[in-house]
Amino acid sequence: MFLFDANCHVGPWPQHPYQPRTVPELLEEMQRLGIAKALVRHTWGWWYDPRAGNTALEEELRGRPQLLPCLAVSPLLAHEMGGEDSFLEAMRRSGARAVCLYPGAQHFVLARWCAGRLLDLLQERRIPVLLEKEEVSWAELYALASDWPLLRIVVLRTGYRILRQCLPLLQSTEHVYLDISYLADNEALEVICAAVGPGRLVFGTGTPRVDGAGAVARLAYAGLGEREKELIAAGNLEALLAGAMLD
Amino acid sequence: MATNAIARAIAAGHSLASVAEVVDIHGHGGPWYDFYVPSSDCESMLRMMDRLGVSAVVLAPHLSVGPAVTEGNDLAIEWSRRYPRRIFGYAVPYPHQPLELIKAELNRALDSGLVAIKIHPSTHNQPVLSDPYRVTWEVARERGTFILSHSWHGDSRCSPAALAEMAQQFPEVPVILGHSGGVPAGFEEAIALAKKQPNLYLDTCGSYVTGAWVRRFVAEVGAERVLYGSDMPFIDPRYSLGKVGLSGLTEEELRQVLGLSAKKLLTSAGACLA
Questions:
Q1: Which residue in chain B has the smallest CA separation from A34?
Q2: Three-class SS state of A41
Q3: Cβ contacts of residue A48 below 8 Å, gap of 6+?
């Protein structure tokens, strides 16, 4: 099965010496798990500075067509990202078709008064937004999806103990997606697919903080049809990225 | 890429039944209060086991590690009788009873077909280094069986160090450190203690266990004392199976961890395996 990883990082972590951390190490890990392609973030974009992280990511992924960059962005577009045009140009130059936001660690609020212009821009251009679950509450996700109903929101590393919140969220919104890196509730893949179809899940490993082998096995053994598995493995993420309008 | 028949089967989503005997040493069953647990009845769990090629599970229903030990033990008895050689049950003590009642309940459950003892000092809020659990260890010694305990680094009720102290006091009783201490600092603690204490065992279930840690467990403690556990249905069993199976262990090591280590313990406890 062709696996496209929506959730992995390169770079050093301040909290723990996670491995892999370099591009060659990430490629080795992908080979171990049989992963063909990955949407990659840089730890600097989360734990140092979005713009510096994006520059580092662009340099490290150069010449690696199987690794697509996902750029970090601050809502202070003019102050921290060089302005809206400059940010969009950075996306085009690097080949990025998705962004990541870290509202918890980087202290901003996913509401109109704080991040309205950025969220409008991402919604208008259908640019998928990756959000680590630890950075945002379920209530905040619901508010975000309600206020920007066409925004493509991909929630990463959800953890388990989540079905009482994520099922109603998925059922009451149209463009919220979950990665399966740490979607570890028993038979959660099957339950979610039965409730909202296979179109709302994307394969992700959580590398290096989560062992991606768990996600590989859950998808391989999923009680789903081959077409459903293929959508989760790669098709849904490919479609999300293809929908981004950057020109 | 997958390097042996077991890893290849897991990566492809094929049943392991034809390539390895898999015994899950750490199972549960039934609903749980703080989240919805789909497919938690024993028939659903058996269907999942069939899909993965898991031949047997040793379990303690959530009820017994939660609010109702006697009813939970009864459920384990019922399931193990309904599916002999596939489902084995743990007898669980309720540590807030008089000591003679703890002993009586454990013996009742073991006499009724349960094969080993599970304790959960965290959910039952009772330190392992206390009389209720000393009685529990005495029963295990008298019955010639083993104990699985929830273990967590930093939780003085069930730290690897506290459980190692019990293992030292009762060297005849094998003790499985469920979750192997839970977090990386706990894994280090559990490894160090298991290297000194030969009746301590490690299991593979837990959110923080990775393939790299499984390799480390095996390298430091030996595959004979590392056991595959899933926490099913508390956590999807495919999570743990993937991490163990794709960890890079050799096929021989995988056979040991996935089944042979557990079979040896179960056989010595008198369980009748398929």
A1: B1
A2: strand
A3: none
Contact: B241, A217; criterion CB under 8 Å: yes
**Cβ neighbours of residue A187 closer than 8 Å, sequence gap 6 or more:** A223, B38, B39, B44, B48, B233, B236
Kindly list the structural domains of chain A, giving each domain's residue range(s) and its CATH number in brackets, ordered by start: 4-242 (3.20.20.140)
Find, among B244, B13, B50, the residue nearest to A1 by Cα: B13
- Can you give the pTM of this predicted structure? 0.96
Contacts of B247 in chain A (CB under 8 A): 213
How far is the alpha carbon of A169 from chain B, nearest alpha carbon, in Å? 15
d(CA A140, CA A25) in angstroms, rounded, equals 35
Residue whose token pair is 């959910």: B123
Residues 164-203 of A with CB under 8 A from B: 164, 182, 184-188, 190-191
Query: What burial letters (b/e) apply to B184-212, b meaning 16+ CB within 10 Å?
Result: eebbbbbbebbeebebbbbbbbbbbbbbe
ipTM for this prediction: 0.95
Query: Measured between beta carbons, which residues in chain A are less than 8 angstroms from residue B10?
Result: 216-217, 220-221
> How far does the CA of residue B13 sit from the closest CA of chain A (Å)?
4
List the single residue in B with minimal CA-CA distance to A209.
Answer: B208
Which residue from A10, A97, A6 is spatially nearest to A45, judged by alpha carbons?
A10
Tell me whether B217 touches chain A (CB under 8 Å): no
pLDDT by residue for chain A (247 residues), tens digit each? Answer: 999 999 999 999 998 889 999 999 999 999 999 999 999 999 999 999 999 999 999 999 999 999 999 999 999 999 999 999 999 999 999 999 999 999 999 999 999 999 999 999 999 999 999 999 999 999 999 999 999 999 999 999 999 999 999 999 999 999 999 999 999 999 999 999 999 999 999 999 999 999 999 999 999 999 999 999 999 999 999 999 999 999 8
Q: Do residues B91 and B59 touch, judged by C-beta distance below 8 A?
A: no
**Sheet strands side by side (includes A37-42):** A4-10, A37-42, A67-69
Residue of A nearest to B236 (CA): A186
Give CATH for domain B5-268.
Answer: 3.20.20.140
Q: Which residue of A187, A201, A203, A218 to mutate against B (max B Cβ within 10 Å)?
A: A187
Q: How far apart are CA A27 and CA A110, in angstroms?
A: 33
- A185–B211 C-beta distance less than 8 A: no
Whether residue B33 lies within 8 A of chain A, CB to CB, comes out as: no
A97, B196, B213 from B192: Cα distances, Å: 47, 7, 13
Q: Which residue of B has its CA nearest to A221?
A: B13
Q: Which residue has the tokens 């269907």?
A: B47
Amino acid at B36: Y
- Residue contact B40–A162, C-beta within 8 A: no
